Amino acid sequence: MNTPPHTAAHPPRPSRGGPRSLEPGLAALPAARWRTGPAGEGVEAASGFPLYDALAGIHLGTDRAGRSVTLRVLGVRIGVLGESLFGRLLACRLLAVGAHVTAATRTPALWAGLRDAAGDRLSLEDDPGSWPSRAPRPPGVDHGPQALISDVRRAPPLPAGEGAGRWCTTVHVRRQAPRHGGFWHDPDALLALGASFAEAVLPVAGEYAAQVTASLEPTEIALFRAGAAEILRLDIAPTETALLTPG
């Protein structure tokens, strides 16, 4: 008995005649109506089947209950209130997942160890200019995703062009958010690296976020995204410490 094409046991193999897109054909996927559940998750309307966000992204650390906290890092805009060391840590982990990283920094000497390890996958720039200079692609394709980590005063540019939103990551690390520019308006994620940054959090994320930040214990940081707050401690491997420590 022949299996109908739309229920084939094995997906068709791509032809060898030329390159194929790595993304699925969305028009071929089954359609369904969805509604939003009480906690913001998607829930299928007819059967009540829940669909939850996957815990995908880079590992940041563990929360107060010992659970892993991950951060989505592709196609996002991240504001960090704290010291520039955290930008180098994010760069290290972005490199590990296949991104090409451009660092716009006031202190290039602090990036020396990571630059030596990363080779041409890490670029240091005084001014990011027309970033991204390389076409953003999925991991493993051409130069892969493009990430910009900046600790200079001026906020990073918002990526433009085909595929930029999906495969570009922009991170700005400052002790205080700039007063002007659109980067810090409703970022996808905001990190506060200690209770001392509560006052800096207030104009960016509001009073509740400032109160959460002020309540942090030593070595704790706060992560704000999608209207939720998480408190965690960073997990840093000895190898990362060696790469990120000058000298």
Q: What does this molecule look like?
A:
The chain is an alpha/beta fold and 247 residues long. The protein is 19% helix and 25% strand. The protein is built from 6 helices and 13 strands. The protein has helices at residues 85-96, 112-118, 164-167, 198-205, 207-214, 238-244; strands at 34-36, 42-44, 50-51, 58-63, 68-71, 77-81, 100-104, 122-125, 146-150, 168-174, 189-192, 220-225, 228-234. The longest helix has 12 residues, at 85-96. The radius of gyration is 21 Å and the shape is globular. Mean pLDDT is 81; it is low at 1-19 and 38-45.
Task: Fill in the keyword field for this structure.
single chain, three-stranded antiparallel sheet, alpha/beta, ten-stranded mixed sheet, 247 residues, globular, 25% strand, disordered N terminus
What layout of secondary structure does this protein have?
Elements (H helix, E strand, L loop, with lengths): L33 E3 L5 E3 L5 E2 L6 E6 L4 E4 L5 E5 L3 H12 L3 E5 L7 H7 L3 E4 L20 E5 L13 H4 E7 L14 E4 L5 H8 L1 H8 L5 E6 L2 E7 L3 H7 L3
Parallel strand pairs: 6-10, 6-11, 7-8, 7-9, 9-10
Antiparallel strand pairs: 1-2, 2-3, 4-5, 4-13, 11-12, 12-13
Helix pairs in contact: 4-5
Low-confidence stretches: 1-19, 38-45
Largest sheet, strands/sense/barrel: 10 strands, mixed
Number of helices: 6
Spatially, the strands of the biggest sheet line up as 5-4-13-12-11-6-10-9-7-8
Radius of gyration, CA atoms, in whole angstroms: 21 Å
Overall average residue pLDDT: 81
Distance between the termini: 69 Å
Question: Which class do the helix and strand fractions yield?
Answer: alpha/beta
Query: Rough shape?
Result: globular
Helix content: 10-25%
% residues in beta strands: 15-25%
Order of helices and strands: EEEEEEHEHEEHEEHHEEH
**Strands, count:** 13
